[in-house]
Design a protein that fits this description.
about 190 residues; 4 helices; alpha+beta; five-stranded antiparallel β-sheet
């Protein structure tokens, strides 16, 4: 049987084109360019508008699901793979979480300060006093003589004998003590209690 297959002559299809094989790609490119120029010209003259509208009408329902598939594949491709990549991503998210928590704390502190400043402003509007906000720097452990130290002093125009008022959130302003001694950046307040 092998001899029978080897003896059969192989007929090759004869090339019927008069164009040499080396010029065929250039001829095809030229035809495509001419066709493109013809289509662009017809489009600019408006002859292809009905065909374009019909193509959009037919292809739009098909394109929407394909766009959804493309977006889903892009999301899958964006998911990190591998243990090292996931550990790095977890580290990034933990750092971002810590930054956000710190920002929340800063905002809560600013809100508390805002409430205190609004209270001080309300006192200034009710009473003709010149007010100076101060934070308590030190509370004296001495139970017999109650003294606190505030973080304002002679640099801030605090003087001995000045009244010190305080206000709890939502409560009225009240006298809490008097300035007993003053340094450059702090003052000792003798509490009335």
């Amino acid at each position: 049987m092998r001899d029978y297959l080897d003896d059969r002559p192989i007929k090759l299809r004869r090339d019927r084109s008069n164009v040499p094989a080396s010029l065929r790609p250039f001829l095809l490119a030229g035809i495509l360019i001419l066709l493109s120029v013809l289509l662009l010209t017809l489009d600019s003259l408006g002859y292809l508008t009905p065909a374009r509208s019909f193509a959009e009408l037919v292809l739009t329902p098909l394109a929407q699901p394909l766009t959804g598939v493309r977006d889903a594949l892009a999301e899958i491709a964006a998911v990190p793979r591998g243990e090292q990549t996931l550990r790095a991503r977890i580290g990034e998210l933990e750092a971002e979480n810590a930054d956000l928590r710190a920002e929340v704390l800063r905002r809560e502190q600013a809100q508390i300060e805002n409430v205190a400043l609004r209270q001080q402003l309300a006192i200034e509007q009710i009473q003709p006093w010149k007010l100076l906000g101060a934070e308590v720097a030190v509370r004296s452990p001495d139970a017999g003589r109650r003294v606190i130290t505030i973080a304002r002093g002679s640099d801030d125009e605090v003087q001995v004998g000045m009244a010190v008022i305080g206000q709890t959130p939502g409560g009225p302003a009240a006298l809490i003590g008097i300035v007993e001694s003053v340094t450059q950046r702090s003052a000792a307040i003798l509490l009335i209690t």
